[in-house]
Amino acid sequence: MASSAIEWTDATWNPITGCDRTSPGCDNCYALTLAKRLKAMGQPKYQNDGDARTSGPGFGVTLHEDLVEAPHRWPGHRTVFVNSMSDLFHDAIPEDFIRRVFGVMADTPRHTYQVLTKRSKRLARLAQRLPWPPNVWMGVSVENQNYVFRADHLREVPAAIRFLSVEPLLGPLTLALDGLHWVIVGGESGHRARPLDPRWVESIRNACTAAGVAFFFKQWGGRTPKANGRTLDGRTWDEMPPRFGSDSGLLAARARASH
What we know:
Layout: E1 2-3, E2 11-13, E3 16-17, H1 30-40, E4 62-63, E5 79-82, H2 95-107, E6 112-117, H3 120-126, E7 136-141, H4 149-154, E8 161-166, E9 182-186, H5 198-211, E10 214-219, H6 248-257
Parallel strand pairs: 2-5, 5-6, 6-7, 7-8, 8-9, 9-10
Antiparallel strand pairs: 1-2, 3-4
């Protein structure tokens, strides 16, 4: 487990590293860039290279057997982003390995796990063969209107919490929010960051508010993640989804914002 600077989680767990770009949201992938740096530093878990057309140095899909059981050793409670350096539903990852990861999450209910994928079709195919304890939240990435179908696949998943990561947001979105509990929105960062129109963000925020879905605005993006801050309409939006069927998390966030 590594502590995380991501605003909506506490830590990361990477029993798998490496991935391949699959849609426009991947064009400036932070994990691909980081993997190249870690390979150059000699980090042993980042020595497998991926296909140069879709991946890169140190970013070949790699299973880390020694990390699968790690959550059993973590004390206390953590909110954990699973595979920040990969995609658990990548086609190169065997179903048996995915099931083992889910088994560990089910066996450690003191932790809350956030799983995020762009491979929503495979997620939907495997969902009925996986355990879905209430401490496993499942999300998909949606960067523009062409990939809203991922949310439709997510609705087929019997996860207690289903969420969207709309980051980087690359265009206006019209979202159906039925069956969803949380939406994270953020702009792209880095040297090639693409612009974020405030109207796109406001539209999603308004839709979430109307539907009673928790809304989290992560950043405007820019040259660095913090370059342009993360306030929207004069405040931060840090709403979290309801936990285990309770709406207390969302209600508490909105109560704080009203004071």
